[in-house]
Amino acid sequence: MKKLENKVAVITGANSGIGLATAKLYLQEGAKVVVSGRRQEALDEVAKELEGDFITVKADVSKPEDNKHLIQEATNKYGKIDVLFLNAGIAPPTPTTDITVDHYTEIFDINVKGPIIAAKEALPHINDGGTILFTNSIVHQKGFEGYGIYSASKGALRAYQRVLTSEVKSRGIRVNAIAPGPIETPIYGKMGLSEDVIEEMGKSFAEQVPLGRFGTSEEIAKSALFLASEDASYINGVELEVDGGLSQI
Ligand SMILES: NC(=O)c1ccc[n+]([C@@H]2O[C@H](COP(=O)([O-])OP(=O)(O)OC[C@H]3O[C@@H](n4cnc5c(N)ncnc54)[C@H](OP(=O)(O)O)[C@@H]3O)[C@@H](O)[C@H]2O)c1
């Protein structure tokens, strides 16, 4: 028996990295998947490699009207939603001395406002007993230099998830989050850093991880499958660190 047979899953940031690996795994496990991203060309590319029952929907999570559109498209096509995976995010670093209002606004609009508004839009359409899953990060548990706004955004999201867990208790909806450590995805190339700096940063992160390496998107996708499936039926309100032990030392 497949773990998500006939379940409807909506995934944001699904054209790349963790979201894409999860879309592939959910499809393999029998889900109908709404694959969402902010760039049509990227969605068209991934549509060529995905197999199964899916649609793509272009939606910029920082725009409230796009979140509404995403949920409308999902429900028009598949009816009710079982799994809402709010994964889209950005992580550009900036030391506090260089923070600008634009930097702050961009990160908070995408990493905090986006998933909160998407959850609000989706709530009436999520089946009782469904699941809302977020991608956080271990950064808000640590103190990585230069990641002040990014860490604050994921910490804010974590605080919101505790409230959401209470708010949906009468409907049996489970709210969980994954906190990845350093995972090899395209996100590092999107941080506005030179290749040398990215390589140095990568080495330093890997050295700090007790398992001594970056994780893979597929390793996060397996956790996203576990938390969305009946295997995690009594797991609710948690933030699961999938980080090779980095948050624990
Ligand atoms: N990789 C890591 O080491 C790591 C560690 C901890 C947490 N995370 C978190 O994991 C999540 C996924 O990141 P990833 O590593 O898989 O990076 P990724 O490959 O860059 O994927 C991020 C996805 O989010 C999308 N996105 C960004 N802004 C968006 C917006 N405004 N509207 C809609 N989609 C948007 C990206 O679209 P584009 O392709 O158009 O940019 C991309 O599809 C993020 O929330 C990130 O903070 C990652």
Automatic annotation (TrEMBL):
The family database entries (Pfam families) matched by this protein are listed as: adh_short_C2
Q: Which InterPro entries match?
A: NAD(P)-bd_dom_sf (IPR036291), SDR_fam (IPR002347)
NCBIfam families of this UniProt entry? PRK07231.1
Q: What is this protein called?
A: SDR family oxidoreductase
Q: Which source organism?
A: Aquimarina litoralis
